[in-house]
Structures are given as structure tokens and as C-alpha cells.
């Protein structure tokens, strides 16, 4: 264990082109539940499964039920950045970290101070009218009764990627570019089971792939350095 962390420390010290790719495990330390953990959303009882509620077609058909779930379970404005978010922001400030690529929609990386954050699945902090495109923040969504509606009468949609929707191609292209050019790629807090996001690591062709996770992933054997542990605890040792 000590040897693994010493190796990670050396990689960080000797690199000025690090890219971080993270998932729900980065934010669970801030109290935000993921989908697949023991206490996650998939293990709670609802009238519909979360993956059904969080689909484009369900949003179109049953917006009131969508928003009841979305406001209760997907928006957590009381959450604060944890040690992982703070460590990554410090690495960026030191000129070592070039980009954070995240599957999370909570905005905690930006709250911690990270500037170059590529949000693969969007953000709860951005919401737009489907008719006139006016933007609204998360507070507006939370305070709205039932279905959030624009002053023009249009329905407001969160700027998050729902099931059945494609990822933003510009963000995907930027993520591919950063991963391809990275000297060190650190992956943390993700099961690497969610595609197409997980497939992005195929664009990393060098030999400094670091995987930090509490549980095993399908990509463990591809890692050049594999560390088992909480991402916040591990990264905070080196920043």
C-alpha cells in the first residue's frame, strides 16, 4: 500500500500534464448518493425504477413525477466539496492538472475551485426553457411548484443528460483530446460501467494509468497503478 502511494506521489510530482476522470464515488464523500452503492438510488423503492424516471421519454410523458423524484433525489445544494475536489483544484492551481472530466452533475468541482471541468452528463445548476431557452438555476427548480415553468409558458428542462439522450459532442471531443494528450491519467470513484463515458479511457495510450477506487472495476487489469481506497483520502496525501 505504501509503495503504491509513493509511486503515485512521484507521478504527480514529475508531471505537468495530468487529467482526472471521475464518477459518483468522488461525490459520495460529500454525502451525495450514487446509483449502485448499498445506499444508492437503485436500492430504494419508488413507483418506477430511477433509470425509467430519469429518461427522456418519462420526462416528456410524466413531467410532474419526473420533477418530484429529480428535486428530491438529484439536487443536493447543501453538499460541499470534499478532499478529492479540493485536491484536484490545488493540482490545477499548481499547473499540473489540465482537466477534470466528470460524470457527476453536482458542480462540486467548480465549487472547490477547479476551472477546466468537462461535465459529461451536464449539471443540475443549469436549466433551460425548452421554448425560449432562458436559463434558470437550481434554486428556481427547487422552489417551483410541481413542474417548473418559464415566464413564457414553456416547460423547463434540466441541462443534464437523461437516459435515451446523447452526450454533448463538443464535450466528448474535448475529453478525448485531453485524455489522448495526457501524460498521467488518474481515474477515480467510478465503476467504469457507464457507457459511452467509460469508453473514453480507450483514448489513453501511454503507460501512466492510475486507477483509484474502493471496489474492483472491469478496467483494473489495464491500470499501471491500482490503489484501493477512498479517492479523497488518497489524493489529499499529495496536495
UniProtKB/TrEMBL annotation:
HAMAP family: Sirtuin_ClassU (MF_01968). It is an enzyme of class 2 (transferase). Residues 1-239 form the Deacetylase sirtuin-type domain. It comes from Candidatus Galacturonatibacter soehngenii. NAD-dependent protein deacetylase which modulates the activities of several enzymes which are inactive in their acetylated form. This is NAD-dependent protein deacetylase. Its main location: cytoplasm. It comes from the Bacteria.
Amino acid at each position: 500500500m505504501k509503495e503504491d502511494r509513493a509511486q503515485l506521489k512521484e507521478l504527480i510530482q514529475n508531471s505537468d500534464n495530468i487529467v482526472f476522470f471521475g464518477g459518483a464515488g468522488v461525490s459520495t464523500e460529500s454525502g451525495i448518493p450514487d446509483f449502485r452503492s448499498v445506499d444508492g438510488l437503485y436500492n430504494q423503492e419508488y413507483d418506477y425504477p430511477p433509470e425509467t424516471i430519469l429518461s427522456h421519454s418519462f420526462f416528456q410523458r410524466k413531467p410532474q413525477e419526473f420533477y418530484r423524484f429529480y428535486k428530491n433525489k438529484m439536487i443536493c445544494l447543501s453538499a460541499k466539496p470534499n478532499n478529492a475536489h479540493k485536491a484536484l483544484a490545488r493540482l490545477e492551481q499548481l499547473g499540473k492538472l489540465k482537466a477534470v472530466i466528470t460524470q457527476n452533475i453536482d458542480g462540486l468541482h467548480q465549487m472547490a475551485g477547479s476551472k477546466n471541468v468537462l461535465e459529461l452528463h451536464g449539471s443540475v445548476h443549469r436549466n433551460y426553457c425548452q421554448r425560449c431557452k432562458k436559463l434558470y438555476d437550481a434554486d428556481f427548480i427547487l422552489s417551483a411548484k410541481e413542474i417548473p415553468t418559464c415566464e413564457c409558458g414553456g416547460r423547463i428542462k434540466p441541462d443534464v443528460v437523461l437516459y435515451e439522450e446523447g452526450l454533448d459532442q463538443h464535450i466528448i471531443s474535448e475529453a478525448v483530446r485531453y485524455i489522448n494528450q495526457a501524460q498521467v491519467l488518474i481515474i477515480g470513484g467510478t465503476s467504469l460501467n457507464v457507457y459511452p463515458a467509460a469508453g473514453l479511457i480507450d483514448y489513453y495510450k501511454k503507460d501512466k494509468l492510475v486507477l483509484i477506487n474502493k471496489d474492483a472495476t472491469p478496467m483494473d487489469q489495464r491500470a499501471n497503478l491500482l490503489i484501493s481506497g477512498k479517492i479523497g483520502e488518497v489524493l489529499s496525501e499529495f496536495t
